[in-house]
Known about the structure:
There is one protein chain. The protein has 17 helices and 8 strands. It is mainly alpha-helical and about 475 residues long. A two-stranded antiparallel ribbon has the order 1-5. A two-stranded antiparallel ribbon has the order 2-3. The chain has a two-stranded antiparallel sheet with strand order 4-7. The model is unreliable at about 1-20 and about 25-35 (pLDDT under 50). This is SusD/RagB family nutrient-binding outer membrane lipoprotein. It comes from Flagellimonas maritima. It holds the Pfam family SusD-like_2.
Amino acid sequence: MKAQIYIAICCFSFIIxxxxxxxxxxxxxxxxTTDEVLPPNLLIKGTMLAxxxxxxxxxxxxxxxxxxxxxxxxxxxxxxxxxxxxxEESNSAWGYLYNGILKQNRExxxxxxxxxxxxxxxxITAITxxxxxxxxxTATVIWGDIPYSEIDIADVEDPKFDSQIEIYKALQxxxxxAIILLESPDTDSGLDEDIFFEGDKERWLRTAYTLKARYYxxxxxxxxAYEAATKGIVEHEGSMRFTPLETQILGTENLLYRFMVGxxxxxxxxxxxxxxxxxxxxxxxxxxxxxxxxxxxxxxxAGGSTGTGRANIINGELTPMYLVSYQENLLILAESAxxxxxxxxxxxxxxxxxxxxxxxxSFELRFSSDDxxxxxxxxxxxxxxxxxMENEDGIDKTRALLREIIEERYVTGFxxxxxxxxxxxxxxxxxxxxxxxxxxxxxxxxxQRFIISQNELNSNPNAPTGISIFDPIPIFK
Length: 477
């Protein structure tokens, strides 16, 4: 792969000294070279920050516009909203993956190969495995086939593109390796440089299982998804999330805040979107006798300057950004239990989600005036039977329950790739997929993928060509 070397951040103090958001981390000309071998604790934060950027920045925002969660208003984002996109839009994310994450995690492995490994090294190695799996999983679900098996072979300049099915098999193997390390008594617990869990072995272990469940869900292996999720994240505080620094130093804020309130103010909004209509009092909304979405609607009100200095809305300056969450794990349990076990077990899991929504943890620092209006009462079987409040169109009650679970995934996953992934995964299940409208009247299929990075197309003759954003990726065909 003849890509130029991008940045690997050595320490967090470097990040907070920058004048730009860490979303731009690939642009630093003082990048670590391939000849340097630095201590892993100087690299691990950089790989984590690159993983945040891959999952929460430019391509995620585009996927949100393609799944009814944002609107592109002007300039580049208006074109992207209308599906006018080029391969150059993938360049930065491709760099995060291959140079900001995979390359630097291999530098960490090289350090241990040269210097030996101790109990902290086992922990850091397990964490890098999980970061690898998280990043690769995002990459393959948005691009399809990607290079992987040959990227570490020294004499291979142009690695092949592995099939998506092989990538998903590799993801499960990588996560299993991390789990073995985390379950070992030889592995330390505690790491100051870990910006997610401070090296808490148990929380990393549960994150690995939730990721296994996520990937089994994406490949429609619902029994395996349920089994993995039973060992996944079990509490809100166990969610893998980045919490911006309270110092409010420029470049360390919530990425959505940095985009919408910073240099791209006005390019994108959450106004007049399908998602916002779902949470409103308009026809076809989610509100019913047991549900009042006012608080969530306000939380997801990603406006312009409204995020300044706040952490109570999705693009608040200090609002945490979720990468792998307790809510996601519960919803994987709900969908996979409904599909493979029973209606009642799926309903029980959905009601655990609603119990969480009713808790103080559900929306960070909500507007106090909304507290009395936030209502998520438990559903009963009767609500999903024909004629019930969640089944007015008279479909099978199990399908009605699945429909509600998928819709809950859609609104819970705001600001992540989950809504777009489900829109593609479930496109043939027209009775339960969220009916997101098209952004253009001449389009009859939602975008199915991003185009491979132009940098890769220019440098690797193995890169696939002639693929459009409307060609389904293999697992969703």
